[in-house]
């Protein structure tokens, strides 16, 4: 009996100028297109017009797409993505596209890690359970760098892409290698694949390729169905009376019902917040809700206190100024049981409103952590936010959060420890909660130097437990390239100084970024500007905050306006309307003077 035509997609993320590569790629395309509906998406920036013309002549029924034609990619151009590289953006756009357009098999090239979000989603159990994801191995970025004896140009982002490429090798359903020497390199690097085959061996048999991507056994993916386990939701609370009703309402309306909620008042001092806490205590007077009070001990100590008074097998931490999405707990639990991982973090959508979330709430930016990339994790929080789920027994073994006062990033430190100790952690590539972006939040007023010492501590204390390969990557892929990147950054900063010297310097924005830019520039600021009229007339870093209308009185040729805000696109339109020109009269300060990439912007 003839089988029905299947839906297949090939994602070409890199075009090798290699005759054998081109011949084999065309053979793959030909064999698949004979009996299947084939779509090809070009996610690379290379000139592929020649290849497109050859494919079109080979078969008129093949659908060809450029990633810039995909709606999901266009939408991302208009969204603020926090901490995501160009390759990451393409991977995320492809994941969204495939979530909406179902295929039986998707074949990704390895370069750039464009399969990453799709494979991660399948790995944690939120998508593609009936889709086979295959990696076409042509050579990773690290493989190429080692062959060419080159260091990374952009250490942080390149190291992340390298990790994502290798994650795809380890977690795809099948790997088909174009070149045998890369197979040998993978073995040398101890990168284990689920199922790996050489392309030449497959192509030796007629139509064998189609059989490989459809008819051999798929990996068994066990769908776990269990009784709902008790989940303890721990909410630390301090002077957040304005926000507490919203987060508790979102928890109460969550779709997963076997929960207990522990709200801990960490010694709130303002009368309004104390009264709100008492009101919520009366409103949620139920057996599975606990409202506890103690002397102020800071976030880490308060979260630990909540866990000590909980009974759940799983723990989820929720900050009192955030808002849970309806299926947050359900998805966390489903993915934890599907993967049998020890801890899962997730994406979030940030917002700036002082009240709750509505259908018109604007996403200020998305936070998209990658996963347990220890070689980058001492500089950049790639692990996730404190709003994570963890197995209680693992939380206890790791030792909970450290409890120093006047420090932040205790969640980041905990996730580093968890990973160094060998527990399994991953990220759910989906926004499960709303993250309230507050300019005056605790983490924004804490000294970075002390915080980074906190982040380095588990690397030092647990050095003997870190794999030697990770240490090698830290030195080779990060430390040496960062030195050269620092020299390049200083060169760019000097060029910027030349442009603004002799002009009146005005900073648009009064948040964390403005403070950092002021400190880095080390030059006289005339005044600050902010769109929040509540700040007009107030002082910031000993300078007055003024209305943007004040800029209309300035001569464009005599000022340099440095925008220090995540809302750069909106402010840019505002300044253009006043007659100022980008890169002449105003600049994006957050790009010129990059803040430490550790920031989660809270």
TrEMBL record:
It is an enzyme of class 2 (transferase). Residues 232-394 form the Glycosyltransferase 2-like domain. GO terms for molecular function: glycosyltransferase activity. Keywords: Glycosyltransferase, Transferase. Its EC number is 2.4.-.-. This is Putative glycosyltransferase EpsH. It comes from Clostridium beijerinckii.
């Amino acid at each position: 009996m003839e089988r029905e035509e299947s839906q297949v997609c090939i994602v070409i993320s890199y075009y090798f100028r290699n005759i054998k590569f081109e011949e084999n790629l065309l053979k793959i395309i030909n064999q698949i297109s004979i009996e299947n509906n084939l779509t090809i998406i070009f996610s690379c920036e290379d000139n592929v017009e020649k290849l497109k013309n050859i494919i079109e002549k080979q078969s008129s029924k093949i659908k060809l797409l450029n990633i810039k034609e995909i709606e999901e990619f266009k939408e991302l151009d208009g969204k603020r993505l926090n901490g995501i590289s160009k390759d990451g953006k393409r991977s995320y756009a492809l994941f969204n596209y495939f979530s909406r357009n179902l295929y039986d098999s998707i074949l990704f090239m390895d370069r750039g890690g464009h399969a990453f979000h799709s494979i991660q989603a399948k790995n944690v159990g939120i998508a593609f359970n009936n889709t086979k994801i295959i990696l076409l191995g042509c050579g990773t970025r690290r493989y190429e760098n080692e062959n060419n004896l080159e260091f990374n140009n952009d250490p942080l982002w390149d190291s992340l892409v390298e990790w994502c490429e290798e994650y795809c090798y380890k977690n795809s359903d099948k790997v088909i290698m174009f070149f045998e020497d890369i197979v040998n390199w993978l073995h040398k690097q101890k990168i284990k694949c689920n199922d790996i085959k050489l392309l030449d061996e497959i192509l030796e048999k007629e139509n064998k390729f189609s059989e490989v991507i459809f008819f051999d056994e798929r990996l068994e993916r066990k769908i776990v169905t269990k009784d709902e386990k008790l989940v303890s939701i721990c909410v630390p609370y301090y002077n957040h009376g304005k926000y507490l009703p919203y987060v508790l309402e979102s928890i109460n309306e969550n779709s997963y019902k076997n929960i207990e909620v522990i709200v801990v008042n960490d010694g709130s001092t303002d009368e309004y917040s104390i009264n709100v806490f008492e009101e919520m205590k009366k409103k949620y007077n139920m057996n599975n809700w606990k409202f506890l009070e103690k002397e102020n001990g800071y976030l880490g100590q308060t979260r630990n206190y909540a866990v000590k008074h909980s009974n759940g097998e799983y723990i989820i931490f929720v900050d009192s100024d955030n808002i849970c999405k309806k299926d947050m707990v359900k998805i966390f639990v489903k993915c934890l049981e599907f993967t049998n991982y020890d801890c899962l973090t997730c994406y979030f959508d940030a917002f700036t409103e002082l009240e709750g979330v509505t259908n018109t709430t604007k996403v200020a930016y998305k936070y998209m952590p990658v996963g347990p990339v220890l070689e980058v994790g001492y500089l950049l929080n790639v692990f996730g936010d404190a709003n994570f789920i963890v197995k209680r027994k693992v939380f206890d073994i790791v030792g909970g959060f450290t409890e120093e006062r006047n420090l932040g990033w205790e969640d980041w430190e905990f996730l580093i420890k968890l990973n160094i100790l060998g527990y399994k952690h991953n990220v759910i590539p989906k926004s499960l909660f709303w993250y309230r972006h507050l300019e005056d939040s605790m983490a924004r007023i804490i000294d970075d130097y002390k915080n980074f010492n906190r982040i380095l501590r588990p690397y030092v204390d647990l050095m003997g437990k870190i794999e030697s390969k990770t240490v090698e990557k830290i030195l080779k892929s990060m430390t040496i390239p960062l030195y050269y990147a620092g020299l390049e950054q200083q060169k760019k900063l000097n060029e910027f100084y030349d442009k603004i010297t002799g002009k009146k310097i005005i900073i648009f924005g009064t948040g964390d970024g403005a403070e950092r830019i002021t400190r880095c520039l080390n030059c006289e600021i005339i005044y600050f500007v902010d769109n929040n009229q509540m700040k007009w007339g107030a002082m910031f870093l000993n300078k007055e905050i003024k209305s943007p209308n004040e800029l209309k009185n300035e001569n464009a040729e005599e000022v340099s306006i440095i925008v220090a805000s995540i809302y750069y696109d909106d402010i840019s339109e505002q300044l253009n309307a006043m007659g100022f020109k980008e890169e002449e009269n105003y600049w994006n300060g957050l790009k010129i003077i990059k803040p430490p990439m550790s920031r989660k912007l809270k």
